Amino acid sequence: MGFFATKALPEFIEVDLGHRQQRIRLKRNLRAKRYILRMPPGDPTPIITVPARGTLKTALDFASRHAGWLTEKLNSRPASIKFEENARIPVRGVLHTLRASGKLRGLAQVDREEEAGELLLMLPGETQSFHRKTKDFLRKIAKQDIEGHVERLTKELGRGYHSITLRDTKSRWGSCSVDGKLSFSWRLVMAPPDILEYVAAHEVAHLAKLDHSPEFWQICERLAPHTKQAQRWLKEHGSQLHLYGQD
Fold first, then answer.
1. 199 burial type by CB count under 10 A (0-12 exposed, 13-18 middle, 19+ buried)
2. Are residues 17 and 64 in the same domain?
3. Looking at the DSSP assignment, which residues form a beta bridge with residue 112?
4. How many domains does the chain have?
5. Among 9-13, 76-80, 197-201, which is the least confidently predicted range?
Protein backbone atom coordinates (compact mmCIF):
# COMPACT_ATOMS: atom_id res chain seq x y z
CA MET A 1 0.00 0.00 0.00
CA GLY A 2 1.44 3.39 -0.95
CA PHE A 3 1.62 6.35 1.36
CA PHE A 4 -0.23 9.56 0.57
CA ALA A 5 -0.12 13.04 2.01
CA THR A 6 -3.21 14.68 3.46
CA LYS A 7 -3.53 18.42 3.89
CA ALA A 8 -4.34 19.63 7.36
CA LEU A 9 -7.97 20.60 7.78
CA PRO A 10 -9.22 23.69 9.63
CA GLU A 11 -10.95 22.92 12.90
CA PHE A 12 -14.21 24.53 11.71
CA ILE A 13 -16.03 25.47 8.52
CA GLU A 14 -19.22 27.49 8.09
CA VAL A 15 -22.24 26.67 5.97
CA ASP A 16 -25.00 29.08 4.88
CA LEU A 17 -28.39 27.92 6.20
CA GLY A 18 -30.22 30.86 4.61
CA HIS A 19 -31.18 32.57 7.85
CA ARG A 20 -27.75 32.26 9.44
CA GLN A 21 -24.24 30.86 9.19
CA GLN A 22 -23.69 27.57 11.01
CA ARG A 23 -20.29 26.51 12.30
CA ILE A 24 -19.36 22.83 11.76
CA ARG A 25 -16.41 21.02 13.29
CA LEU A 26 -14.21 18.93 10.96
CA LYS A 27 -12.76 15.68 12.26
CA ARG A 28 -10.57 13.47 10.06
CA ASN A 29 -10.87 9.73 10.60
CA LEU A 30 -8.32 7.59 8.76
CA ARG A 31 -10.63 4.56 8.94
CA ALA A 32 -13.73 6.33 7.60
CA LYS A 33 -14.76 5.50 4.04
CA ARG A 34 -17.19 8.38 3.53
CA TYR A 35 -18.17 11.81 4.81
CA ILE A 36 -20.60 11.74 7.75
CA LEU A 37 -22.53 14.69 9.21
CA ARG A 38 -23.86 14.17 12.72
CA MET A 39 -25.24 16.04 15.71
CA PRO A 40 -23.35 14.85 18.81
CA PRO A 41 -25.50 14.71 21.96
CA GLY A 42 -24.90 17.58 24.34
CA ASP A 43 -22.78 19.54 21.86
CA PRO A 44 -24.29 22.51 19.98
CA THR A 45 -21.75 22.18 17.13
CA PRO A 46 -22.39 19.62 14.34
CA ILE A 47 -19.46 17.45 13.21
CA ILE A 48 -18.41 16.25 9.76
CA THR A 49 -16.23 13.16 9.75
CA VAL A 50 -13.74 13.41 6.88
CA PRO A 51 -12.21 10.21 5.46
CA ALA A 52 -8.46 9.69 5.05
CA ARG A 53 -8.28 11.10 1.52
CA GLY A 54 -10.97 13.72 2.10
CA THR A 55 -10.43 17.36 1.19
CA LEU A 56 -11.64 20.68 2.51
CA LYS A 57 -13.44 21.46 -0.76
CA THR A 58 -15.40 18.20 -0.67
CA ALA A 59 -16.26 18.76 3.00
CA LEU A 60 -17.63 22.22 2.14
CA ASP A 61 -19.68 20.81 -0.76
CA PHE A 62 -20.96 18.00 1.47
CA ALA A 63 -22.04 20.48 4.15
CA SER A 64 -23.85 22.67 1.59
CA ARG A 65 -25.73 19.70 0.09
CA HIS A 66 -26.98 18.75 3.56
CA ALA A 67 -27.96 22.26 4.67
CA GLY A 68 -31.66 21.36 4.63
CA TRP A 69 -31.16 18.27 6.78
CA LEU A 70 -28.98 20.25 9.17
CA THR A 71 -31.56 23.03 9.53
CA GLU A 72 -34.28 20.48 10.33
CA LYS A 73 -32.13 18.74 12.95
CA LEU A 74 -31.08 22.00 14.61
CA ASN A 75 -34.69 23.20 14.80
CA SER A 76 -35.91 19.93 16.33
CA ARG A 77 -33.11 19.61 18.88
CA PRO A 78 -34.39 19.91 22.48
CA ALA A 79 -33.36 23.04 24.32
CA SER A 80 -30.62 22.70 26.91
CA ILE A 81 -31.52 23.14 30.58
CA LYS A 82 -29.29 25.50 32.53
CA PHE A 83 -28.35 24.99 36.16
CA GLU A 84 -30.28 28.02 37.40
CA GLU A 85 -32.97 28.79 39.96
CA ASN A 86 -36.25 26.85 39.44
CA ALA A 87 -34.67 24.53 36.85
CA ARG A 88 -35.65 20.89 37.30
CA ILE A 89 -32.83 18.40 37.04
CA PRO A 90 -32.64 14.66 37.71
CA VAL A 91 -30.58 13.43 40.64
CA ARG A 92 -30.23 9.64 40.72
CA GLY A 93 -33.14 9.51 38.29
CA VAL A 94 -35.53 11.71 40.31
CA LEU A 95 -36.31 15.33 39.38
CA HIS A 96 -35.24 18.03 41.84
CA THR A 97 -35.94 21.76 41.58
CA LEU A 98 -32.99 24.10 42.12
CA ARG A 99 -33.64 26.73 44.79
CA ALA A 100 -31.60 29.30 46.70
CA SER A 101 -31.25 28.33 50.37
CA GLY A 102 -30.86 31.95 51.47
CA LYS A 103 -27.59 31.10 53.21
CA LEU A 104 -24.35 32.71 52.20
CA ARG A 105 -22.27 29.62 52.86
CA GLY A 106 -22.66 25.92 53.39
CA LEU A 107 -23.23 22.79 51.34
CA ALA A 108 -25.93 22.00 48.80
CA GLN A 109 -28.70 19.98 50.45
CA VAL A 110 -31.73 18.02 49.31
CA ASP A 111 -35.03 19.10 50.88
CA ARG A 112 -38.74 18.60 50.24
CA GLU A 113 -41.43 21.22 49.75
CA GLU A 114 -44.17 19.96 52.05
CA GLU A 115 -47.25 21.32 50.26
CA ALA A 116 -46.36 20.15 46.75
CA GLY A 117 -44.25 17.21 47.87
CA GLU A 118 -41.58 18.43 45.47
CA LEU A 119 -37.93 17.52 45.95
CA LEU A 120 -35.61 20.52 46.12
CA LEU A 121 -31.87 20.98 45.76
CA MET A 122 -31.07 23.92 48.04
CA LEU A 123 -27.96 25.88 47.07
CA PRO A 124 -26.22 28.53 49.20
CA GLY A 125 -24.73 31.78 47.93
CA GLU A 126 -25.66 34.01 45.01
CA THR A 127 -27.75 32.64 42.14
CA GLN A 128 -24.89 33.50 39.76
CA SER A 129 -22.98 30.58 41.31
CA PHE A 130 -25.76 28.02 40.73
CA HIS A 131 -24.04 26.50 37.69
CA ARG A 132 -20.78 25.76 39.49
CA LYS A 133 -22.38 24.64 42.75
CA THR A 134 -24.87 22.34 41.05
CA LYS A 135 -22.12 20.72 39.02
CA ASP A 136 -19.94 20.39 42.13
CA PHE A 137 -22.80 18.70 43.98
CA LEU A 138 -23.50 16.25 41.15
CA ARG A 139 -19.82 15.40 40.75
CA LYS A 140 -19.51 14.79 44.48
CA ILE A 141 -22.34 12.27 44.71
CA ALA A 142 -21.33 10.72 41.37
CA LYS A 143 -17.87 10.09 42.87
CA GLN A 144 -19.42 8.53 45.98
CA ASP A 145 -21.75 6.25 43.99
CA ILE A 146 -19.17 5.18 41.41
CA GLU A 147 -16.44 4.49 43.98
CA GLY A 148 -18.88 2.44 46.04
CA HIS A 149 -19.86 0.27 43.06
CA VAL A 150 -16.28 -0.13 41.84
CA GLU A 151 -15.04 -1.21 45.27
CA ARG A 152 -17.80 -3.80 45.59
CA LEU A 153 -17.55 -5.09 42.02
CA THR A 154 -13.76 -5.39 41.94
CA LYS A 155 -13.87 -7.44 45.15
CA GLU A 156 -16.53 -9.65 43.60
CA LEU A 157 -14.41 -10.08 40.47
CA GLY A 158 -11.15 -10.47 42.36
CA ARG A 159 -9.39 -7.73 40.39
CA GLY A 160 -7.70 -4.49 41.40
CA TYR A 161 -7.82 -1.10 39.69
CA HIS A 162 -5.40 1.82 39.52
CA SER A 163 -7.61 4.91 39.82
CA ILE A 164 -11.02 6.46 39.13
CA THR A 165 -11.45 9.72 37.21
CA LEU A 166 -14.64 11.68 36.51
CA ARG A 167 -14.99 13.49 33.19
CA ASP A 168 -17.69 15.10 31.05
CA THR A 169 -17.29 12.92 27.97
CA LYS A 170 -19.83 12.99 25.15
CA SER A 171 -18.82 9.91 23.20
CA ARG A 172 -18.72 7.31 25.99
CA TRP A 173 -20.01 6.79 29.52
CA GLY A 174 -16.91 5.08 30.82
CA SER A 175 -13.53 3.64 29.89
CA CYS A 176 -10.87 1.30 31.24
CA SER A 177 -7.19 1.52 30.29
CA VAL A 178 -4.75 -1.38 30.06
CA ASP A 179 -3.19 -0.29 33.36
CA GLY A 180 -6.49 -0.31 35.24
CA LYS A 181 -7.36 3.39 35.13
CA LEU A 182 -11.15 3.77 35.16
CA SER A 183 -12.91 6.85 33.87
CA PHE A 184 -16.62 7.73 34.06
CA SER A 185 -18.97 10.51 33.04
CA TRP A 186 -20.23 12.33 36.13
CA ARG A 187 -23.56 12.78 34.29
CA LEU A 188 -24.40 9.16 35.07
CA VAL A 189 -25.50 10.31 38.52
CA MET A 190 -28.52 11.98 36.87
CA ALA A 191 -29.66 8.58 35.54
CA PRO A 192 -31.50 5.99 37.67
CA PRO A 193 -29.04 4.23 40.04
CA ASP A 194 -29.11 0.89 38.20
CA ILE A 195 -27.81 2.62 35.04
CA LEU A 196 -24.75 3.97 36.83
CA GLU A 197 -24.27 0.53 38.42
CA TYR A 198 -24.28 -1.12 34.98
CA VAL A 199 -21.64 1.27 33.57
CA ALA A 200 -19.46 0.64 36.64
CA ALA A 201 -19.85 -3.12 36.09
CA HIS A 202 -19.06 -2.74 32.38
CA GLU A 203 -15.75 -1.00 33.06
CA VAL A 204 -14.83 -3.31 35.96
CA ALA A 205 -15.44 -6.27 33.64
CA HIS A 206 -12.80 -4.78 31.32
CA LEU A 207 -10.25 -5.26 34.11
CA ALA A 208 -10.59 -8.97 33.36
CA LYS A 209 -11.23 -8.78 29.62
CA LEU A 210 -10.20 -5.72 27.60
CA ASP A 211 -12.50 -6.41 24.65
CA HIS A 212 -16.17 -7.05 23.90
CA SER A 213 -15.89 -10.78 23.38
CA PRO A 214 -18.59 -13.23 24.53
CA GLU A 215 -16.46 -13.91 27.60
CA PHE A 216 -16.47 -10.19 28.46
CA TRP A 217 -20.26 -10.00 28.22
CA GLN A 218 -20.62 -13.07 30.43
CA ILE A 219 -18.55 -11.31 33.11
CA CYS A 220 -20.48 -8.05 32.67
CA GLU A 221 -23.86 -9.75 32.98
CA ARG A 222 -22.69 -11.70 36.01
CA LEU A 223 -21.76 -8.41 37.70
CA ALA A 224 -24.87 -6.57 36.41
CA PRO A 225 -27.72 -8.95 35.48
CA HIS A 226 -29.69 -5.93 34.22
CA THR A 227 -27.06 -5.18 31.54
CA LYS A 228 -29.43 -5.40 28.54
CA GLN A 229 -32.11 -3.22 30.17
CA ALA A 230 -29.51 -0.61 31.13
CA GLN A 231 -28.07 -0.57 27.60
CA ARG A 232 -31.56 -0.02 26.23
CA TRP A 233 -32.16 2.87 28.67
CA LEU A 234 -28.88 4.55 27.69
CA LYS A 235 -29.68 4.18 24.00
CA GLU A 236 -33.14 5.71 24.43
CA HIS A 237 -32.49 8.31 27.12
CA GLY A 238 -28.74 8.75 27.56
CA SER A 239 -28.43 11.73 25.22
CA GLN A 240 -30.90 13.67 27.38
CA LEU A 241 -28.36 13.75 30.22
CA HIS A 242 -26.16 15.96 28.06
CA LEU A 243 -28.88 18.63 27.83
CA TYR A 244 -28.38 19.65 31.47
CA GLY A 245 -25.94 22.31 32.60
CA GLN A 246 -24.24 23.15 29.34
CA ASP A 247 -21.82 26.07 29.72
1. buried
2. yes
3. 119
4. 2
5. 76-80
